[in-house]
Every structure is written in structure tokens, then in C-alpha cells.
Amino acid sequence: MTKLMITTDSTADMPASVAEKYDIRVAPLHVLYNDEDFADGVDITPEDILNRYKERGELPSTSAVTPDGYLNFFKEIFDEGFEEIIHIAFCSEMSSTYQNAVIASQEFDGKVHVIDSRVLSSGMTLLAIRACEFREEGFKPNRICDLVNDLIEKNVGGFLLSQLEFLHKGGRCSSVSLLGANLLNIKPTIVVKDGAMTVAKKYRGKDEACRLKYLKERLDEYKDVIDTRRIVLHMTCDISEKDRKYYKKELKKLIDCDEIIVSTAGCVITSHCGPGTFALFFMTK
Asked: What residue range is the signal peptide (predicted)?
């Protein structure tokens, strides 16, 4: 059997426990503060971003892994004795990561297979886990790629934002929209579909009530077609461990599933969406 490694980008926000369990390698994107360049999740954390914003009012920009970065990333894996790599890349319509990974893959004689996930965050994690499961079932790399590509359109994900300040600071929200949201205590949702992020339903009220309503309505929307093998509950690092356990408990009341993964937003999602961001990811049958 081919010795195959599954890899992905740091925008997958993959818990370390999941990466360790399935032996998935993660390529870090770049987090930039003027002349400072940090590797996402390696030498900067989401907590660092929130603290720096609180102390200095600074938000970073983010940039893709370069072709050279991917070249070195893939080479290190081959140097360990792996024969092929399947890379689950960050959505090509949101970043140049996919294109850069493809460029780097051309140096390895067809031994690196790059998949455009067309999603971000925990949607990428779900695809990477399924790729590992297909590998364990004995499928060859080309067949695994076909199976994962078939799953992309079944990937469902979305975010409930607690505030719009970070989107505004990043130029993705007007001052008028920010003011209106603050005055009316509006919590917008952003859904990921067909490689794009769009604003969907807006909730109004306190975070906890909005989050519980969001969970119920998202599950109701896909009732009877949810793949209940695995669901990801996703939150920014500022949401306490106590609250994480509470929301997981409430999710269990809403749906009977085999596994609930609780993950933390990485630097990219944190810097764009801000504190209090809450999300749900799953696949359909």
C-alpha cells in the first residue's frame, strides 16, 4: 500500500488532537503586522491577536503560503519516507493558497494531489478526516481525491458573529452597518457556499440566546439529511471552557450524533471575524 500523507492549511482550524489522531500535517499561513511576519498557529496564536487589538488597536493582515513554502512543506514529508500527499487546500476563491500549492506540486512528478476544498475552517477539517478514513479503508490516492471532491458540495458551514468591529476594521463592513448593528444588537450569520461567504440571517439579542437559536435553526434547515457521524462546534478562543461544554451539551440535546468535535478558530478567522464568533459545521448524506 502507498505510504500516503494527508495535509491541509492552517485555515482548517484543526484541533491538535485531531491532527495527532489522524496524523494530518498542517501548512501555516502568514499573519502580518507591518514588517512582522508570523506563521499561523506556530509563532502567533488567536489569543495574541485579540490581546494585541485590545492593547494597541492593531489587526493583522493574512497571506497565503507561498509556492516555496509549500515546496519545503511537501519536501519535508517526502524526506520522511512518504510516497504521495493529498493536500486539502483553503478555498481558491478566497485565497491563493490552492494555486500556490498546485505550483509547488508540479515539482513532485504527480505525487502531490491538491484538492480545492471550496470551504474554510472546520469544513476543511471534515474533508481531511474523511480523506484519512478513505486511506484506512485501502483506497488509492486518485480514488480518495475523487471521493473527497464528491463530498465538497455536501459540506455545510456558517458563522454567527457577535460583533462587526473586526470586519469593519478590515474594510469588509461600512460604518453605517456597524453603527446599525451595535444600536440594534444584531448578530449576523455568514454562510459558506459554492466557494463564497455571504451574509444570511441576522439574529438580535444576547449572545447565548442567539447561539442556541442559531444551532436549532441550522439543524432544522438540514433535518433528515445531516450525516450524524461527525459535527464540529467551532468558537473563538475568548469563549470560555465552561461555555464550550454548555453549548456542546445543548447541541447533544438537538441531535443524536456519533461525535462532536469542539474546535477553536485560528488566527485567520479570529482576525477577520473577531471575538465571540460561533459556528457549526457538518456534512449532509
From this structure: none
**What band does 172 get if pLDDT is binned at 50, 70 and 90?**
very low
State how far the Cα of 276 lies from the Cα of 187, in Å rounded to an integer: 10
pTM: 0.94
Cell of 175: 460604518
Task: Select the CATH number that applies to the domain covering 155-284 from these four: 3.40.980.10, 3.90.70.10, 3.30.1180.10, 3.40.50.300.
Answer: 3.30.1180.10
Tell me the pairing of strands 278-284 and 226-235: antiparallel
Contact 120, 193 (CB under 8 A): no
Specify the residue for cell string 459558506. Answer: 192
Distance CA 226, CA 158 (A): 15
Q: Fold match between 4-31+65-152 and 155-284? A: no
Please tell me what DSSP assigns to residue 107: G
Q: What confidence score (pLDDT) does residue 169 get?
A: 61
Which residue do the cell numbers 461525535 mark? 259
pLDDT, position 175:
37
Question: Of 159, 11, 194, 30, whose CA–CA distance to 88 is shortest?
Answer: 11
What's the order of all strands across the beta sheet hosting 278-284?
196-204, 186-193, 155-160, 278-284, 226-235, 260-264
**Set of cell numbers at residue 268:** 485567520
- Would you list the domain boundaries of the chain? 4-31+65-152, 155-284
Cell triple for residue 198? 455571504
* Average pLDDT, integer, range 27-47: 96
Q: How far apart are CA 88 and CA 91, in angstroms?
A: 9
Lookup: cell for 35: 514588517
CB 48, CB 128: distance < 8 Å: no
Query: In the CATH hierarchy, which top-level class contains the domain 4-31+65-152?
Result: alpha beta
